[in-house]
Amino acid sequence: MWLLRLSLEAVRAEAHALPIEAESFDAIVSVDAFEYFGTADRHLPYLVWFLRPGGQLGVATPAMTLEVREPGAIPPGRRDWLLWTRACVAHRPGDPAHRPVIGMLTANGGDGGD
Fold first, then answer.
1. Would you call 70 helix, strand, or coil by DSSP?
2. Which end of the chain is more exposed for a tag (fewer CB within 10 A), N or C?
3. Is 0.85 surpassed by the pTM of this model?
4. What is the average pLDDT score of the chain?
């Protein structure tokens, strides 16, 4: 039998200036957030800096339908994310929460394609 004791610490801070020491965590999990702060090329290595050797990083984000194990192997998903967001707007047209996401996904004349 394996027993695992976890200690969970929630930190609310600016994602680019975390008040945490290097190698502080065995695991880091980001749920529906990385797409907003992780777009800079240096942010992923910065985030990994907080993991202890052998630590795990988990990122769950809209439109990800496959598990990604290799860096650089992220499957396309922007079109799916855009379709989902537009469906949310159609379901709740008075809720403005999804409109900024549509704007982000269609910026620069894009259609949300991959």
1. coil
2. N
3. no
4. 78
